[in-house]
Amino acid sequence: MNKVKKVPLRTCVVTKEVLPKKLLVRIAATKEGVVSIDLHGKAPGRGAYLKLAEDVIILAKKTKALDRKLEVTVPDHIYEELLKLIHE
Q1: C-alpha 80, offset from chain centre
Q2: What local confidence, expressed as pLDDT, does residue 3 receive?
Q3: What does the domain layout of the chain look like in residue ranges?
Q4: CATH 3.30.1230.10 given to domain 9-87
Q5: Distance separating alpha carbons of residues 26 and 12, to the nearest angstrom
Q6: In this structure, are residues 78 and 61 in contact, taking their beta carbons and an 8 Å threshold?
Q7: What is the reported pTM?
């Protein structure tokens, strides 16, 4: 019997889709309110997951979904960096 490896699932804060962690990007916020894009999923602080799609990121900015989830104001440069990640 070979053991089936469990795929970690996370929910996108915008689309509410439950997807494998690999398909999402984690945004982390520390208690001090420092927001960063956590590509390795290991950064300390509160985390929120976003689907890496242009429309999802634009919607996240418009609806302030990340601001609510992380309980901080997410700076515009974070959204710009996320959009850059898609286009690379």
Answers
A1: 13
A2: 77
A3: 9-87
A4: yes
A5: 9
A6: no
A7: 0.88
Nearest Cα to 67, choosing from 37, 40, 33, 44? 33
Each as own residue / partner, the long-range contacts of residues 68-71 (CB below 8 Å, 24 or more positions apart, any chain) are: 69/13, 70/27, 70/28, 70/29, 70/35, 70/46, 71/29, 71/46
User: Of 77, 87, 68, 8, which Cα lies nearest the Cα of 36?
Assistant: 77
Question: What digits encode the pLDDT tens for the residues 43-72?
Answer: 999 999 999 999 999 999 999 999 999 999
Long-range contacts of 76-81 (CB under 8 A, 24+ apart): 78/27, 78/35, 78/36, 78/37, 81/37
Are 38 and 82 in contact, with CB atoms under 8 Å apart?
no
